[in-house]
Amino acid sequence: MGRAKQPLKLYARDPKNPWAPQAVPAAPPMPTHLAPDEKAAYKRFAATALKMRVVTEDDWCALEHLAIIYAEAQRLRKVIRQEGSTYETRAQNGSLFIRPRPEAAMLRALGTELISLYARFGFSPADRLGVSAAPNPVTNADDEFA
Asked: Where do the structural domains in the chain lie, given as residue ranges?
């Protein structure tokens, strides 16, 4: 399956399609129900996406999801750092087994989802090339000729 297409709102106006919608870059308001670490991630991702001009107020759901998953991945990493990536267990016959922690598997699953969301917003150097930003707004009539 091919890569999902970017929403039209994030693309600069295409001269081939003058009717393509174009939204003004703006950070969506932060949801109030986020945990403190999720709020910190939301602020960081919103600021970066706004600086890159690839986020609009309509992108609240994707940005919220990104912040929640990122914070959850950080919590899982903390557990792995503290407790290690494996644990020991004994079978009924007394033999010792060393098994990977469940948090490691959860972190791997979240990692693939995070990479996908990073690509949607252009948060990696390779993906930045595939995301079109909104044009810089002209705030002064003389800026157009600068």
From this structure: 33-134
